[in-house]
Design goal:
Elements lengths: L2 H10 L3 E2 L10 E3 L12 H6 L4 E4 L10 E3 L3 H15 L3 E6 L4 H12 L5 E3 L9 H8 L6 E5 L7 H9 L3 E4 L7 H4 L2 H8 L1 H9 L2 E5 L3 H6 L7 E4 L7 E8 L2 E8 L39 E8 L3 H14 L4 H10 L8 E4 L4 E5 L5 H14 L4 E6 L8 H13 L4 E6 L12 E4 L2 H10 L6 E5 L14
Parallel strand pairs: 1-2, 2-3, 3-4, 5-7, 5-8, 6-7, 8-9, 9-10, 15-19, 16-17, 16-19, 17-18
Antiparallel strand pairs: 11-12, 12-13, 14-15
Helix pairs in contact: 1-3, 3-5, 4-11, 4-12, 6-9, 11-12, 13-14
Length: about 475
């Protein structure tokens, strides 16, 4: 079946499913193959559970007219998403980076939703499967799509851009993440820079933290429009940390910039104004320059979130959203999914940042926790994944940082810490299960506890014991 005919079916049944354990009624089920599963084995289950059609690439499951056989299910999903993208007028903002991309994606989505209809990446479905699924969730009436792009190998960002076709892009930062796949920090720069290169080729626009020298150097040869935020010349928004006790409070200062000074929303597909939820002209200005500065008290711990907030304010301001409305949206935003969460249990206060970890984010989180948290501190540190040949050196460096925290109890989880000698106040566990057994016998109370580690460690499993 060709993409045009498949797209006609998708327009009739615009829900895509890839997991029969979730609701699939009236959907088109794509039988994706993975390292540990083969979706073709669940085609019959999908139809039994209410899927209207299934797309499979194993000819042995053919026979039912509702089973559509293609050469490769994954590539067909990607082609369908790209075809859908070419048919809709939605403006796409693509976000990538080593740290903070999911939080930035969420904040930009919240801010833009003050005025526009927005569809954004759910959770962190940011890979070769998640991005197509996100694009296929975008409805023709959505004015913005905020799409997170993740990668751990060169070429992946470029491929995802070919599917999402963004007109705007933002790289949060460059850090020591996924070095097993990228090889070096220069490899990270080159891979993340694929977003800038795509926007250069397609005539897109870039939001950038002008206080980040690495990002600015990556844009030296960029000839398109650059919308700057952060502390520097010609920024649309700047700001600084007021306090973090532990929640972040910031002072922000909007100002003149060289971007879309009219504040009008223009579709990057048509150049026209498609309207907004309120029915007002989206070009209507609600503020005039210079805006007055204001303080925003957030529900996010971590002074490193300042840059993520400024990115959201820059995007909202560029598209003409009232400053106070943006501030209200940011005040209301509460992190979830084990990212920058503060959770008070019956016995302790938990600072949970356990969805991902790399040397850059690990150091920033530890510094912030040590600086902005109360007494009786405890750190539960999980090992860092996907570091390749530098894993031993980076874990040794991490232990050196932790060794300077004399007033904290340190717990290490994961075999990456086994080859090092540690101080007597450190306690090591090979995995989370071993630590839960220890906590059941040695309960912890009245403590401020940081949980930070790579997702594969599963530190969130400790929460019921804390």
């Amino acid at each position: 079946m060709n993409i045009e005919k498949l797209y006609q079916l998708f327009c009739r049944f615009p829900v895509i499913s890839t997991d029969t354990r979730k609701a699939v009624k009236d959907s088109i089920f794509f039988a994706i193959r993975g390292d540990k599963f083969d979706g073709n084995k669940y085609v019959a289950d999908a139809l039994a559970n209410g899927a209207t059609y299934t797309v499979a690439d194993d000819r042995s499951v053919a026979g039912d007219p509702r089973i559509l056989i293609v050469d490769n299910t994954l590539s067909t999903l990607q082609q369908l998403a790209a075809y859908h993208r070419s048919k809709i007028k939605t403006s796409i903002i693509a976000i990538t980076g080593s740290n903070g991309k999911t939080t930035t994606k969420d904040l930009i989505s919240k801010v833009l939703s003050c005025k526009y209809t927005v569809c954004s990446t759910q959770g962190n479905l940011n890979n070769h499967i998640g991005v197509p699924l996100t694009i296929l969730r975008i409805k023709p009436y959505d004015q913005f799509g905020v799409v997170e792009l993740g990668a751990n190998h060169p070429g992946e960002i470029d491929g995802l851009c070919r599917i999402a076709q963004p007109g705007y892009g933002l790289i949060t930062n460059i850090g020591r993440a996924h070095l097993e796949g990228f090889g070096s920090i220069d490899g990270v720069i080159k891979a993340k820079g694929e977003l800038y290169r795509y926007l250069q080729e397609s005539g897109g626009k870039v939001f950038v933290n002008c206080g980040d020298r690495v990002l600015m150097d990556m844009l030296i040869s960029f000839t398109g429009e650059i919308i700057r935020y952060g502390n520097g010349e010609g920024t649309i928004f700047s700001g600084d940390v007021d306090k973090a006790d532990p929640f972040l409070s910031i002072n922000v200062r909007p100002g003149k910039h060289q971007g879309q000074k009219t504040g009008k929303y223009v579709s990057d597909k048509t150049g026209k104004h498609p309207g907004e939820k309120s029915g007002k002209d989206p070009g209507e200005k609600s503020d005039e320059y210079p805006y007055k500065g204001l303080n925003i008290r957030t529900k996010m711990p971590g002074d490193f979130n300042l840059e993520n907030i400024l990115a959201a304010l820059a995007a909202g301001s560029y598209f003409g959203i009232n400053t106070e409305k943006m501030a209200e949206a940011i005040r209301d935003y509460a992190p979830d999914n084990f990212r920058s969460q503060v959770m008070k249990t019956k016995h302790n206060t938990l600072f949970i940042d356990a969805y991902n970890a790399n040397p850059t984010s690990m150091n920033a989180t530890i510094r912030n926790f040590q600086k902005n948290t109360g007494e009786n501190k405890m750190l539960i540190i999980g090992e860092m994944a996907e570091l390749g040949e530098i894993s031993e050196a980076e874990h040794r460096a991490l232990l050196s940082v932790l060794g300077e925290l004399n007033d904290c109890k340190i717990f290490l989880v994961g075999n990456s810490f086994n080859n090092f000698s540690v101080p007597d106040n450190f306690r090591r566990f090979s995995n989370v299960q071993v630590m839960t057994e220890w906590l059941a016998i040695h309960p912890v109370t009245n403590a401020n506890i940081l949980l930070k580690g790579s997702r594969i460690v599963g530190l969130e499993k400790l929460i019921p014991y804390l």
